[in-house]
Amino acid sequence: MNAMNKTKVPIPMFLLIGIIAISFSSIFVRWSDAPASVIAMYRLLMTNVLMLPFLWNYRHEIARIRLKDWLRTAISGIALGLHFLFWMDSLRFTTVASSTAILTLEPICVLLGAFLLYGQRTSRAALIAMCVAIVGAVCIGWGDFQFSGNALKGDLLSLIGTLAVALHMLLGKGLREHMSAFVYSFFVFLFAGMVLAITNLFTGVSFFAYAPKEWGVFLLLAIVPTVFGHYVFNWLLKYMNASSVSMTVLGEPLGASLLAYFILGETITTVQLLAGCLLLVGVGMFLRSNEKQ
């Protein structure tokens, strides 16, 4: 954690920027009528295009990447691509609140994986704080959970996407120990985009037959939740535990639900607002306990 102290940057500010940015993801996806696999593909590949002019500056680092790390980066990218594919598709069948609330299972998966892979232990206070935050997040989407029909399908898709992003986060923690955020993010996004492109090719989905509005949505997804969201979280993996970064993502259900209320006209209840406050308290307690340094 010494590197964190040397950077002299306000980590909480970057956490807040990342949470707000990823909260817009659900809104942008709802604005698009394109298939989820196409939305996810262009979101990632457009991000690569935005990053491409700066790639030459990292040529020496890229030349030193070992085969083992290339394989781990590829798997991380594939997992991220599957996360986007399943989670975005879930929004076609269930509400924003329900879909994003299921994402609260991510820190549990990451915490378990971090213990098994890296021997990372968590204090009892942090575990209690995690439970508080997860209860709050689940309560935000509880009224929208349905256990049959399309809503159930959407919830299951969101669950699969959650498991995939947990794997991506765990691999990223190890790779970021000796790989810059830019290089890691560029190739993870590239591998994820390629997986989605292959999926679209084999399913016969059109690559180009979309209205100008759709291309605008693709670009918004690339800039806001990907660059200012996922890239920022990849950067933070160098200075924070993977479980802590995952916990901050729990702010997305609250942010997305508030944005859906103001922009999409979805309802939000007093219980959901109170649950949001409980979520924030839990996240704050967890970070304070888990990131003491």
From TrEMBL:
GO terms for cellular component: membrane. It comes from the Bacteria. It is a multi-pass membrane protein. Keywords: Membrane, Transmembrane, Transmembrane helix. The keyword Iron does not apply. Its main location: membrane. The chain crosses the membrane at residues 12-32, 38-58, 70-88, 100-118, 125-145, 151-171, 183-209, 215-233, 245-264, 270-287. Residues 13-140, 153-286 form the EamA domain. It is found in: Endomembrane system. Belongs to the EamA transporter family. This is Multidrug transporter. It comes from Paenibacillus ferrarius.
